[in-house]
Structures are given as C-alpha cells and as structure tokens.
Amino acid sequence: MAEFIEVRATVEGHEQAAALAHAILGAGLAASIDIAEVPSTRPGEITWELTLVTTDRHAATLEQHLRQTGECCSIVSAPVIHDVDGYPDWLGDGRH
C-alpha cells in the first residue's frame, strides 16, 4: 500500500492558485486538491493555500513542480497519518 503525503503550498492570487492546481491535476501529481483562502502577511492581500494529497512516489516531483513555478510562498509536506480506531470529524458523535 502506498503511503500518502499531504503537501500544503501558499500562493498569492486566486488565478495563480487555480492555474497551479489545474497543472498539477493534469500532470497526475496529486490525487486531490483543496484550495482555501488564508490570512496573508501583506495587508490587503489574499493568500490561497493548496492542500494536495499525493503518493510517496510522487511527493518529490510535486514539490519540485511547485518550486519551479515560482508562484509558491511556502511549501510544507507531512505524511498522512491514519488512526484506524478514530472517526472522521464529520462522522463523530462526540466520542474520543
């Protein structure tokens, strides 16, 4: 079973974020992409965070692709950790 890696990258501007997400999906480098608005360090600016899930095999290539575009402000990667006894937030009923 392949390990999954979550890669988070911040991008200035929604058009750049959308174009980058489209290119990544088109290249088959991520299984899923979520784009969300996040606070920017620059007043009056909007930053977008791409949360990508990829396989361990594609993680380095994905990070390289993100860096080569020059659009990203930051890139953070971490393995996706599964708690087999846990429940997803949306399924939980207060059990912990």
Textual characterization of the structure:
This protein is about 30% helix and about 35% strand. The mean pLDDT is about 85. It contains 2 helices and 4 strands, in the order E-H-E-E-H-E. With about 100 residues, it is of the alpha+beta class.
Structure in a nutshell:
With 96 residues, this protein is an alpha+beta fold. It contains 2 helices and 4 strands, in the order βαββαβ.
* Spatial arrangement of strands, main beta sheet: 2-3-1-4
Could you list the spans in which at least 5 consecutive residues all have pLDDT below 50? none
Query: Strand fraction band?
Result: 25-35%
Count of distinct strands: 4
What is the makeup of the main sheet? 4 strands, antiparallel
What is the helix content?
Answer: 25-40%
Instruction: Label the structural class.
Output: alpha+beta
**Head-to-tail CA distance between termini:** 27 Å
Mean pLDDT: 83
**Gross geometry:** globular
Radius of gyration, Cα only, in angstroms? Answer: 15 Å
> Could you give the order of the helices and strands?
EHEEHE
Tally of DSSP helical segments: 2
What would the keywords be for this entry?
96 residues, alpha+beta, 2 helices
List the helices and strands and how they pair.
Blueprint: E1 4-12, H1 14-26, E2 32-38, E3 47-55, H2 56-69, E4 72-79
